[in-house]
Specification:
The structure is a homodimer of 225-residue chains. By secondary structure, chain A is mostly helical. The first copy, chain A, folds into two domains: 62 residues, Orthogonal Bundle (Arc Repressor Mutant, subunit A), CATH 1.10.10.10; 147 residues, Four Helix Bundle (Hemerythrin (Met), subunit A) (Up-down Bundle). Chain A is built from nine helices and two strands, in the order αααββαααααα. In chain A, strands 1-2 form a two-stranded antiparallel sheet. In chain A, strand 1 and strand 2 form a beta hairpin. The longest helix of chain A has 30 residues. At the A-B interface, helix 3, helix 4 and helix 7 of A face helix 3, helix 4 and helix 7 of B. The first copy, chain A, binds a DNA duplex (30 and 30 nucleotides) through helix 3.
DNA sequence: TATCATGGAAAAATCGATTTTTTACTATGG
DNA sequence: CCATAGTAAAAAATCGATTTTTCCATGATA
């Protein structure tokens, strides 16, 4: 009752969600080979739904799959992160421009709401996963009006990839504060309809966030040597 | 899938390849619900590898999946095709510009080779699937030097989506001839290093190819009414 | 007539066991 | 000492059967 979408649960989709969360959240080491039996026990799930979820994640790019030799968590690489950052800047800049051109009053309201929830999550800082959720929703809300489902799909995918790096990286409270303030300013510029300025700020936001994420590569390199 | 390192065959990857080919090749009706048992028999494959392949294809966007109610071939829509075309133009234009800036002698040689193979396939026209393969390889070769693995991945994905429309659409020999000549000219411009002109031509090529693909939507709309 | 309940067939999802393939280890010959 | 063939253990992939859920025809009720 009351739920907008009846998300009929299934073992596969649940384990998919859980694994995705844990992969992005950094609960697996980069480059690690997944022991399927161990996963089966840890998540209390049967083999079939587990394997189906792993296949989905591999197709999505959060896992690598080699025929007959199972699944592996992708390594972190500086080059790949640079690629992801550059594409995020272009794609999200594009999407924001279009979103501003198409946004209506309802969207403005949702954006303010998402911005408010995020600010609250910044302040309370009690539950990390809750902040991550609010942050993701905010960035989604900002662009969802752009009118291009495929562009949004790619942006989401890149965002997930990016977050894997960011969440492996050490926290940087100084930069974090700037990033938080940028969120608020993004709302202001978006509502004012300053397309160009909003776009520039979003790209700066991604670049700065990339500075933090870069820390993940250094950790990874140390670990390899 | 983009990077398949292992050459070892597996039932899952084989059925994945076969299903992908048949989905893009239009051997399923748009909107059709897949009867898993029928697929099992038709492809002479067990249930587990089949389901794993279906999960991969759903994550890739060539199938839709609803919890507890199986898999469905996505409908064709004019809006989606417009989205795909617009993104292909932007992404591939971007990639071509970068490819030209980075291309070396070896790439030039490969491009000439791919162009030659495609021309031969145009002329002989004996085996449709063979031409499709040469065509795909040509477009891949044109952009592969761009240096952005993620951009290439998205381009490939959009190309597959696009081809599903194109191959459902009725053939248009007149336009086909123009498209073929554009391939040759793309090679010329690329080798000459005329970045801007090559980029414009590629975008025109995609737009014109889109005109053909549009025919699929009309067929689909007739079928629905 | 429209709505809602019901049961059984069909389909999807899941499980447990089996088969196949890889990996790690050991012994053997060059 | 290195290379390599053999083999046992482990892991991955696949199969066949079972369980769960949906779908749809039927009939009862207001």
């Amino acid at each position: 009752m009351g739920s907008q979408e009846s998300l009929a649960a299934s073992a596969t989709s649940e384990i998919y969600t859980a694994l995705k969360r844990d992969l992005i959240g950094g609960r697996f080491r980069a480059g690690e080979k997944l022991a399927i039996n161990a996963l089966k026990q840890h998540y209390r799930i049967g083999l079939s739904p587990l394997r189906e979820a792993l296949n989905r994640l591999a197709a999505y790019g959060l896992l690598e799959q080699e025929n007959q030799r199972g699944f592996r968590v992708p390594a972190l690489s500086r080059d790949e992160l640079d690629d992801i950052i550059a594409l995020r800047q272009r794609f999200e800049g594009e999407a924001l421009t279009q979103a501003l051109a198409r946004g209506d009053a309802d969207w403005e309201a949702r954006l303010i709401g998402a911005g408010h929830r995020l600010k609250r999550a910044d302040e309370t800082a009690t539950d990390l996963e809750q902040w991550e959720q609010a942050h993701l929703q905010f960035h989604r809300c900002l662009l969802e009006q752009c009118g291009s489902p495929w562009l949004l799909r790619f942006i989401e995918q890149l965002h997930d990839q990016f977050d894997r790096y960011r969440r492996m990286a050490p926290a940087n409270p100084a930069i974090r504060e700037t990033l938080d303030s940028q969120h608020a300013e993004l709302v202001t510029l978006a509502l004012a309809g300053h397309s160009r300025a909003a776009c520039d700020l979003l790209q700066a936001h991604i670049r700065l966030s990339g500075e933090v994420a870069l820390g993940a590569c250094q950790i990874d390199e140390r670990g390899q040597s």
